[in-house]
Every structure is written in C-alpha cells, then in structure tokens.
Amino acid sequence: MSKLTGGKQQTRRRSMEDEQTDKNFCKEEDVEKGIAECNFNKAIGQDGFDGKMLSKAGHLKKTINAKIQEWISKGKFPEYIKEGRLILLSKNQGELYPEIGNSRPIVVNSHLSKIIEKVIVIKIHEQKSELLVTGNYQNGFKENKSTHLNLIRLFNHIKESS
C-alpha cells in the first residue's frame, strides 16, 4: 500500500470528506437511471420489496428515490438491505430436490440493494474514480479487461524466467 505525502494526503482526505458531506453526491437522476437499469423480473429478496411496483406508483418511486439518495449520501444502509436469501438451484432443469453435487447456490438480494448497486456503479463510472485508474495490472472494473489477463502475464513471466 502506498503512502501519500503530507499535502497530497490532506487534499485527498478533504476531497473524500467533501464527497461525503456533499448532499448532491447522489442525485435523483442517478437513482432514476439505476432503477431503469435494474431487472426486476427476478426473485424478490427477503425484505419482500418488489421493484416492479416502482413503475406503477409514482409516489412510492419518489419516496424510494429519496431514501436511496439519503442512504448513499450518508453511507449508512439498513441491515435488511445487506441481507440475502440463500437458495440452491438444480443444475438439471426441472429437478425439485437437487443433490448437493448437482446444485449451485445463489443469493437472492433485495430489489432495493440491486438499485443501490446500480447507482454506485453509475457514480463510479461518472466520477472516473481512482478505482478505475489504478495501473496496468488492475483489470477489475475496467471495460474490455478481465482478471485472466493477469494470469496470462504471470504465466509469460514464469516462462521467460525459466
């Protein structure tokens, strides 16, 4: 982990504090875009919130939008948003009671947490944050990059070394 020197560290700390206290960090349009990008045709999380309701009830959409803006801006989320429901899906279609070897676990998250995730991804891409500019060997969260590229580099390095 690299250390920042005095002035840079203070500037970075100030900018992070400004982001956290900035009430416009997460805007209504960001949440609207996050809602639009979500696929609500999947299972409902354990909180029972169905995202399809947002297209049918304007007042509910405004309330949810305001709550999500508040949660993201404060960086504090209710516990029920952080929880998911673990279920086993059969690898063989139609099998009601799959064996452990023929199943794969998935976690069903709340539709609210899916919206929050989309909004955060939108904000990361908008801000071109430091997470996206971390050097030649960082491939996660970068367009057209994959972690397998680092494996290829490693194998090439080992091959060249021997």
UniProtKB/TrEMBL annotation:
In residue numbers, the region (Disordered) covers 1-25
Task: Enumerate composition-biased segments (Basic and acidic residues).
Answer: 14-25
Name this polypeptide is given: Uncharacterized protein
